[in-house]
Amino acid sequence: MYLAILMAISLFFSIALYQISTAELRRGLNRPVPGMDRRGIDSIFDELRSQIMADRQAQFDESCQRLINSLIIVNLLILCGGGFLCYFLARRTLRPIEESHAALERFTADAAHELRTPLAVMQSENEVALMDSKLSLKEAKLQLNSNLEEVARLTQLTEGLLRLSRHDGRELHREPVAVNEIIKQAVDRMQKQAVEKQVTIQSKVTGDKAEVLGDQASLVEAVVVLLDNAIKYSPVASKIEVTSKSSSKLAEIVVKDFGVGIAEADLPHIFERFYRADSSRTQDAQHGYGLGLALAKSIIESHDGTICAKSQPKKGSEFIIKLTKIQ
Ligand code: ADP
After folding, report:
1. pLDDT of 253
2. What's the pLDDT score for residue 282?
């Protein structure tokens, strides 16, 4: 399509150029031969004039032919060069669309797989229970409890998916937000969960009043994800540190725990959707679906910030959010 448009423009200009050039040449062809206007008086002049006119006609024909040849070469060059350029540009334009399409397909497949597992478990357990003619009330209650656990996991998954999709398409309401306020609200939200696991959250916020431009609720949600993970992957009765720092241009929020840590091989992938490090899979049922950090990353990146993780297995992890400060 690009090439067809390019060639149409090129041919249009070539024809116009040809018409203008031949019109100019024809004007030269028809101009009178100087000093030879004594038509019919002297036959030698007549002969000489027709000779000159014939030469001019030959030159005109040759010039037209050369012009046509040059225009054909130029158009062929435009066709080849333009074809290559158009192919290159079209691939470049389509690459992000292809990537997002592939990511969407991967995401849908992963989500479907995660949804299918608890459903399959519930289906087979219920079928077995229904076939058991001697099923006691106690066994039936156990079965219902198991179903409820699976339903809770499904709810957790759909909530995670919903939060991600809500954030993906949402217009951010940007306003000046104090970094310390983000930390305070996130810590308040996670306090109950921390107390249940006897984990202490120490927030080491400085007196610095750094502010960032952003959506407060989303930023709090990102820190909540980090705190939620820190609590989940820390041993009972341990501590978590939340620190705020700021330099001349950046405001930082650091969430540090002393829990199971993350293996070096897993670190580059933990922000991917549905990625779960193996060490966490082997833990109890509290592990999630690998959507939390993807959400946190998406929130921070939509605020033009960065999020990264450092970790040492069995020693703990540190997550660092960096956002541009309002000057
Ligand atoms: P999940 O809901 O499974 O915790 P996340 O996207 O929040 O999903 O985290 C992805 C993976 O990164 C987790 O499965 C876990 O293995 C690892 N992870 C995240 N935070 C921590 C942490 N503070 N300590 C240890 N591992 C962590």
Report:
1. 96
2. 43
What does the pLDDT read at residue 33? 67
List the Cα angle 77/81/86 in 5-degree steps.
Answer: 140
Res 36: pLDDT: 59
- Contacts for 143-149 with beta carbons within 8 Å, 24 or more apart? 146/122, 147/122, 149/285
User: Probe ligand 1: pick from 240, 276, 319, max atoms within 8 Å of CB?
Assistant: 276
For the entire predicted model, the pTM comes to 0.72
313 CA distance to ligand 1 middle (Å): 13
Q: Compute, in degrees rounded to 10, the torsion defined by CA atoms 13, 14, 15, 19.
A: 100
Q: Between the CA of residue 30 and those of 20, 53, 229, 268, what are the distances in Å?
A: 16, 8, 91, 79
Distance CA 46, CA 54 (A): 12
Query: What single-letter amino acid sits at 100?
Result: S
How far away, in angstroms, is 271 Cα from ligand 1 center? 9
Distance 175 CA to ligand 1 centre (A): 30
Q: Which of 270, 300, 314 to mutate to test the pocket of ligand 1 (most atoms within 8 A of CB)?
A: 270
Residue ranges with strand state E in the chain: 175-178, 200-205, 211-214, 239-246, 250-257, 306-312, 316-324
The separation between the first and the last C-alpha atoms of the chain, rounded to the nearest angstrom, is 48
Q: Is the pLDDT of residue 191 over 80?
A: yes
Dump pLDDT digits (tens) for 35-76: 655 555 567 777 887 888 888 889 889 999 999 999 999 999
Phi, psi of 286 (to 5 degrees): -75, -15
